[in-house]
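Can't paste images in this forum, so I'm doing it all in text. The chain is below; anyone willing to post the predicted structure tokens underneath?
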Amino acid sequence: MSDLKTQPTRASVDVFIDAVDDEGRRADCRVVAGLMAQVTGTEGVMWGSSIVGFGNYHYRYASGREGDFFEAGFSPRKRALTIYVMAGFSEYDDLLAKLGKYTTGKSCLYVKRLADVDLDVLREILTRSVAFIRAKYA
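Text version of the structure:
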């Protein structure tokens, strides 16, 4: 069974954020990092070379595959700030309707700028997601 490629590292989150080219994206990263630290009660850790993760949990699937991953995270990708909502979005239609401008993938929320979304709604999405992950993988 292969190991997950994205693993926590000892790299500095602050150095990573400071190296983000776009000043606006860099500022958004700092806001999201603060929000995720509040929601999870943990400090950010670099996962691989480009993802900042907060908290962690151990998962085990029926297939026998298991591993560790972060409860919430983000990455300042070129096209958008990617916010990882590990619980997915199926239970958040009420919140997504109020969030603002975004797109989603399976567990990814893509935001061009934080100014385009309601931060209180984003906080609630992250809070619910982290609570779900903690309850499921306790």
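Residues 12 and 105 are 27 Å apart (CA to CA). The chain is about 35% helix and 25% strand.
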